[in-house]
Automatic annotation (TrEMBL):
This is Uncharacterized protein. Residues 17-27 have a biased composition (Basic and acidic residues). It comes from the Bacteria. Residues 1-15 have a biased composition (Polar residues). It comes from Cytobacillus purgationiresistens. Residues 1-63 are annotated as: Disordered.
Amino acid sequence: MGKNISPNEMISNLEKSGWKKTVEPGGKKSGPATILTDPSTGTKVRIHAEPGEGTPYFRAQNKGGGYLDNNGVFPSNATKQELRDATHFYFEK
């Protein structure tokens, strides 16, 4: 999904669709997070448009806080590294 859209375009599109936006300061590596929440499902998208290190990315969370993979599933049996690899989506635009 992040291949054909910029972080700012994703934020704008989700806001226009009715998602609620909040911004949190981030850590040194991840930078600030723009968090958009779907009011009807509780699903959240955390967008790190300007990470301190690396490429801009986003992550999706279910209403319970579990990070989702590209199939929309929480990979419960994954190791910490596998979870990270499966749930970080990088912007290429």
